[in-house]
Design brief:
Elements lengths: L37 E6 L14 E3 L19 E2 L6 E3 L5 E4 L1 E3 L2 E4 L1 E4 L11 E9 L11 E9 L14 E6 L6 E7 L14 E6 L10 E8 L6 E6 L2 E7 L5 H8 L3 E9 L2 H7 L13 E12 L6
Parallel strand pairs: 3-7
Antiparallel strand pairs: 1-18, 2-8, 4-5, 5-18, 6-7, 8-17, 9-14, 9-18, 10-11, 10-17, 11-12, 12-13, 14-15, 15-16
GO biological process, one term: carbohydrate metabolic process
Organism: Streptomyces daliensis
Family: Belongs to the glycosyl hydrolase 16 family.
Length: about 300
């Protein structure tokens, strides 16, 4: 979500750099040696329709930004986040449901973040974070401004809010304007510029295959692999690797500051902001944007493989 320390001018945000070509050939399984992973945390969003996600696991964010942090969450998004069930609820069918609504000229939506901030790959081991999600079923002009995201921030961001992007941000799944395409991005270093080319970050994208991103559930995952001579981040959609960044792509201090510590997980449905505006070429949402689109999340899970696990 590019939690920038200052708002980006409308239209200044380009697509994340290093856009990937579509993967060719058979789809590899996500994470060689995945059987060695041990699931250490999971949320399945079971519960009564209309109830809130578990307060033991999740914090519900509200308003237009953290107290003392950048306005509009640092991204220029226009909605106000609420804890109202109309915006944020369990749907009674095992899903988290985040819905973007409009009341007059005011957009509202939902955003949650994990209470835990210690999701990390052990030295010499690996970590995998995944979620199964169905993106808002809105396309074309009616989808302008929709920005669902599944991502992480470095633990030191909580309570500070001005140390981005040095503490690291892993965008595991971002989608804008209802496109049948999702993005994976690493944010790191300094803003602007630096080894992650901020504020854009180092990213790539891929289309959803089989069913569109909006027509069915797909699994989005990130692996942080610290088991080899060169550490690496890898992004997957339905088991297909479509993006990677390695420690060799930057200086050791920048890499360590982004990856060698805990992260917390975020799920949200933003409206408007630098990314959808940049892709559309103008400010979003527009008068044509249709409220009522919902992000559905089936589960979120974190798995870890200790040092010496199967590679």
């Amino acid at each position: 979500m590019a939690a920038a320390a200052a708002l980006i001018a409308l239209g200044a945000y380009a697509l994340p750099t290093a856009q990937a070509e579509e993967p060719e050939g058979p789809a590899p399984k996500a994470g060689a040696g995945a059987a060695a992973y041990e699931e250490v945390w999971r949320t399945d969003f079971d519960g009564a329709a209309g109830s809130s996600p578990s307060g033991d696991d999740w914090i519900i964010d509200k308003g237009h930004g953290y107290e003392g942090g950048p306005a509009n969450w640092g991204t220029g998004e226009v909605q106000s986040y609420t804890d109202r069930p109309e915006n944020l609820q369990l749907d009674g069918e095992g899903h988290l449901k985040i819905t973007a609504l409009k009341d007059g000229d005011t957009w509202t939506s939902g955003r949650i973040e994990s209470k835990r901030t210690d999701f990390a790959a052990p030295e010499g081991g690996k970590m995998r974070i995944e979620a199964s999600m169905r993106l808002p079923d809105v396309q074309g002009d009616a989808a302008l401004g929709y920005w669902p995201a599944f991502w992480t921030l470095g633990d030191q961001y909580r309570g500070n809010y001005w140390n981005w992007p040095g503490i690291g941000e892993f965008d595991i799944m971002e989608n804008v304007n209802g496109e049948n395409r999702t993005h994976g991005v690493l944010h790191c270093g300094v803003n602007p510029g630096g080894p992650c080319n901020e504020t854009q970050g180092v990213g790539a994208s891929t289309e959803c295959q089989g069913t569109s991103c909006q027509a069915g559930f797909h699994t989005y995952a990130l692996e942080l692999d610290r088991s080899g001579a060169t550490e690496e981040l890898r992004w997957y959609q339905d088991g297909r690797e479509f993006h990677s960044v390695s420690a060799a792509d930057m200086d050791a201090e920048t890499w360590a500051n982004a990856t060698h510590h805990g992260h917390f997980i975020l799920l949200n449905l933003a409206m408007g902001g630098a990314f959808p505006d940049g892709v559309a070429g103008h400010a979003t949402p527009t008068a044509a944007t249709q409220p009522g689109g919902s992000l559905l999340v089936d589960h979120v899970a974190v798995s870890v493989e200790p040092a010496g696990g199967a590679g």
